[in-house]
Write a structure and sequence with these properties.
- By secondary structure, this protein is an alpha+beta fold.
- It folds into two domains: 126 residues, Lipocalin (Beta Barrel); 98 residues, no CATH class.
- 15% of the residues lie in helices and 36% in strands.
- The chain is built from five helices and 16 strands.
- It has an eight-stranded antiparallel barrel. Strands 10, 11, 12, 13, 14, 15 and 16 form a seven-stranded mixed β-sheet that branches.
- The longest helix is centred in the middle third of the chain and has 13 residues.
- It is globular.
- The termini are far apart.
């Protein structure tokens, strides 16, 4: 007959035979790493599509010491914006428009020296904004894209400045393709109009204009009509007539109270404040 295990050794035996770690309990770093795989980074093609499919507006900027770079936030209502295509980077909402050739490779973005228009702004804060972004957004930049409904782009330069941009879909991305370029004349005064959801709505008075390939107006414009839609990017001032160049997109999912078209301002071609 075998001797029983002495009571003195029972605690040691019980510890040695303890049950394996249960789910939810602490795990070794190696095991934890296996259980929580790192988020996949977008491929080079995905990154290029994400960059070109969004407008990127500056939301934060810090130097290497973590101090906010206030000079880059000269206009709170119009933050600095980056726009990408396959090879060019454009910067708007400063004093001047700037652009540069760029190369995307893995987790890096290389930006050539910026070319700029040469307009002198009376607002010295905007002039300083141009200088500051010009020296911070060039050369080799470490890049991180965080995807999601509101993606972010984080760029870090060699000096350690960290610039964070929030993405907003371009109209082409939102509406699934390029728009049709049209010219609209907007009368100086709005008029009351009927809208199923907006009582006492004031409608823009709009008519379409046509131009030939030399930029000369052709044909007689029709009568002004109630325009129930908004023109994205356009803010009407009573008493001011404008000619707008807009991109017209066909909506895939049309709300019950809306037109099948969406209109996005490209530029104001002509302004007349005479009230006529």
């Amino acid at each position: 007959m075998r001797n029983p295990i002495p009571a003195l050794f029972l605690p040691l035996v019980l510890v040695a035979c303890a049950a394996p770690t249960q789910p939810g309990s602490a795990a070794t770093p190696a095991v934890a790493a296996e259980q929580e795989p790192a988020m996949a980074k977008p491929s080079a093609l995905q990154a290029a599509l994400i960059l070109s499919g969004h407008h990127w507006r500056l939301s934060d900027a810090r130097d290497a010491a973590g101090k906010r770079i206030d000079a880059l936030f000269a206009r709170a209502a119009k933050p600095l914006q980056l726009d990408f295509n396959a090879s060019m980077l454009s910067i708007i909402n400063g004093c001047n428009s700037m652009s540069a050739h760029h190369v995307l490779a893995g987790d890096s973005l290389t930006v050539d020296p910026l070319a700029s228009t040469m307009m002198a702004c009376q607002d010295q804060a905007l002039m300083a904004l141009d200088r500051e972004i010009g020296k911070r957004l060039q050369g080799g930049l470490a890049m991180r894209i965080d995807e999601g409904d509101a993606p972010t782009l984080v760029l870090t330069n060699a000096a350690g400045d960290v610039l964070t941009f929030r993405g907003e879909m371009t109209a082409e991305t939102r509406y699934g393709g390029p728009g049709e370029r049209v010219f609209l004349e907007v009368a100086a005064a709005t008029k009351p109009c009927s809208h199923p959801l907006i009582p006492a709505k004031q409608c823009l008075q709009v008519r379409e204009l046509r131009y030939d390939d030399k930029g000369l107006q052709v044909g007689a414009p029709g009568e002004f009509q109630n325009f129930l839609e908004d023109i994205q990017g356009y803010e009407h001032r009573d008493g001011v007539r404008n000619v707008l160049r807009v991109d017209r997109y066909t909506r895939k999912d049309v709300p019950a109270d809306a037109s099948k078209y969406a209109y996005v301002l490209d530029m104001v071609v002509e302004t007349d404040a005479s009230g006529k």
